[in-house]
Amino acid sequence: MKLTPSSAALTARDQRDPAVEIRDWHAHVYFDPDDATEVTEFIKFASSHLGIPMGYVHTRPVGPHPRGSCQLTVPTHRIGEVVQWFAINRGKYTILLHPTTGDDVADHLFHALWLGPNEELVPPPTMVSN
Fold first, then answer.
1. For FRET with 92, which of 35, 37, 75, 115 sits at 20 to 30 Å CA-CA?
2. 47 Cβ contact list (under 8 Å, min separation 6)
3. How far apart are CA 70 and CA 62, in angstroms?
4. Whole-number Å distance between alpha carbons of 111 and 99
5. Could you please report the per-residue DSSP string of 20-79?
6. Going by DSSP bridges, is the β-strand pair 54-58/24-31 parallel, antiparallel, or unpaired?
7. 120 by DSSP, 3-state: which?
8. Domains (ranges, CATH) in the chain?
9. pLDDT single digits (tens) 4-39
10. Model pTM?
11. SS3 for 97?
């Protein structure tokens, strides 16, 4: 089952609750297998230049992510700066940015920002809420 914002009804639960805390943001850089070496260098540079931690480089789909990806963790007070940097420097890579509030489904589907083309996420069963 694939989920996109257009295929899921936005309910009162999904709307922004001022009491919900955004702990930090995740920036997932998507890439194709042939680009693994090149994207790793790009992500290492971004991590070093921006001073944000780089996660593991997954060369195949993991979790809801439909392609290879790598996560960078962004403090909330730096998200504007990081979005601006990626908007200008992302090159051919698509980047999904989402807050981490504790609600993985809403964070990935309703609270997300895309730099580059939107991609359909494929949530694992543990991520789908009823």
1. 75
2. 53, 54, 72
3. 10
4. 7
5. ----EEEEEEEE-GGGHHHHHHHHHHHHHHHT--EEEEESS-BTTBSSEEEEEEEEGGGH
6. unpaired
7. coil
8. 22-119 (3.30.70.1240)
9. 555 454 554 555 566 789 999 999 999 999 999 999
10. 0.83
11. strand
